[in-house]
TrEMBL record:
<dbReference type="GO" id="GO:0016887">
    <property type="term" value="F:ATP hydrolysis activity"/>
</dbReference>
<dbReference type="Pfam" id="PF17863">
    <property type="entry name" value="AAA_lid_2"/>
</dbReference>
<dbReference type="InterPro" id="IPR011703">
    <property type="entry name" value="ATPase_AAA-3"/>
</dbReference>
<dbReference type="InterPro" id="IPR027417">
    <property type="entry name" value="P-loop_NTPase"/>
</dbReference>
<dbReference type="Pfam" id="PF07726">
    <property type="entry name" value="AAA_3"/>
</dbReference>
<feature type="domain" description="AAA+ ATPase">
    <location>
        <begin position="59"/>
        <end position="203"/>
    </location>
</feature>
<dbReference type="GO" id="GO:0005524">
    <property type="term" value="F:ATP binding"/>
</dbReference>
<keyword id="KW-0067">ATP-binding</keyword>
<dbReference type="InterPro" id="IPR041628">
    <property type="entry name" value="ChlI/MoxR_AAA_lid"/>
</dbReference>
<dbReference type="InterPro" id="IPR003593">
    <property type="entry name" value="AAA+_ATPase"/>
</dbReference>
<dbReference type="InterPro" id="IPR050764">
    <property type="entry name" value="CbbQ/NirQ/NorQ/GpvN"/>
</dbReference>
<comment type="similarity">
    <text>Belongs to the MoxR family.</text>
</comment>
<keyword id="KW-0547">Nucleotide-binding</keyword>
<protein>
    <submittedName>
        <fullName>AAA family ATPase</fullName>
    </submittedName>
</protein>
Length: 342
């Protein structure tokens, strides 16, 4: 399969037979294997981070990448934009960034006939892949400017709606909240992110390879493998992947046991202030399908639910004061919620 002229696949809902669906899944899995390979030549030692970011894009969602500076979060987003052939733009979030700097604004212009009219000038949000770098350095007012765009795929300026390009994805990077000069994101905006991906340090061997590859005379560039139309087809195909009843029940049990009002787990009732809403169930349903597609499997399993539980739930739950005082972490609570499914 050529990188510059990849084999097309159909994601049309009209594709009817099971054999056709199997063939489409196998073709997409091969394409995504090539995507991972190309990304892996630029990003070293972050296989889980790359996988979860690709899951987000396949599922049609937005991703929040959290980690200290210098872990290639920005580089990952730039690389994905190139590999997927998406029109990408970047916002460097700072405390003085205003909503109009993201959405755009109307300017008053005078025509040759002397008439004056407002013209809308698009902001950087009008892109297929928007990178909001260090999003938690922007003020809450500016952070909220992205909320409508992320949920509705359109923005409202001057009383007029302006549709955003398709596909549209926000990949935001964030410094840990204990860093100085940061603002926590509102819960409503956090819920709009399909996954929260925690980016850690690479292992020693990966860091060694990165050191050699990125400080020499020639650094390997990212290469385009897909385009926006291919990604949209993949997202349509994902929604046709069947999910078994047992997996659906596992999703419901996981999410509902994370809510202190109705959980059977003592740790959740004692330590969780508020739990995940129905959007968490939807996110899990899409994410496990995407994970199965990445592996070339025809349907997801309960193992997929367990593997993707933390990235889906971390930012949709909050611990109470008692939990923080006792040193309880969200990851440990999620482990207890997931234990009955293992």
């Amino acid at each position: 399969m050529s990188v510059t002229d990849p084999t097309p696949f159909s994601g049309s809902p009209a594709a009817g037979s099971d054999d056709r669906l199997v063939a489409e899944i196998e073709t997409l899995a091969e394409r995504m294997r090539l995507v991972r390979e190309r990304v892996g030549r630029v990003i070293f030692g972050q296989e889980a981070v790359v996988e979860q970011t690709l899951i987000t894009l396949l599922a049609g969602g937005h991703c929040l990448l959290i980690g200290v500076p210098g872990l290639a979060k920005t580089k990952l987003v730039e690389t994905l934009g190139t590999v997927f052939g998406l029109d990408d733009k970047r916002i460097q979030c700072t405390p003085d960034l205003m909503p109009a700097d993201i959405l755009g604004s109307e300017v008053l212009e005078e025509g040759q006939d002397g008439r004056r009219a407002f013209r809308f000038i698009q902001g950087p949000v009008f892109a297929q892949l928007l990178m909001a770098d260090e999003i938690n350095r922007a003020s809450p007012r500016t952070q909220s400017a992205l909320l409508q765009a992320m949920q509705e795929r359109r923005v409202s300026v001057g009383g007029q709606y302006h549709p955003l390009p398709s596909p549209f994805h926000v990949l935001a990077t964030q410094n840990p909240l204990e860093q100085e000069g940061t603002y926590p994101l509102p819960e409503a905006q956090l819920d709009r992110f399909l996954l929260q991906v925690d980016v850690g340090y690479p292992d020693r061997e990966a860091e060694r390879r990165m050191l050699i590859a990125t400080t020499g005379a020639d650094e390997e560039p990212a290469v385009q493998v897909m385009n926006g139309a291919d990604l949209l087809q993949a997202q349509r195909l994902l929604r046709r992947v069947p999910v078994g009843d047992s997996v659906i029940e596992a999703i419901l049990s996981l999410v509902r046991n994370g809510r202190p009002e109705e959980s059977d787990i003592d740790s959740v009732r004692r330590h969780v202030a508020w739990g995940p809403g129905p959007r968490a169930s939807q996110a899990l349903m899409l994410a496990i399908r995407a994970r199965a597609l990445l592996d070339g499997r025809l349907s997801p399993s309960i193992d997929d639910v367990l593997a993707i539980a933390k990235p889906v739930l971390r930012h949709r739950m909050a611990l109470n004061f008692a939990a923080r005082a006792e040193g309880v972490t969200l990851d440990s609570v999620i482990d207890k919620i997931a234990a009955p499914l293992a």
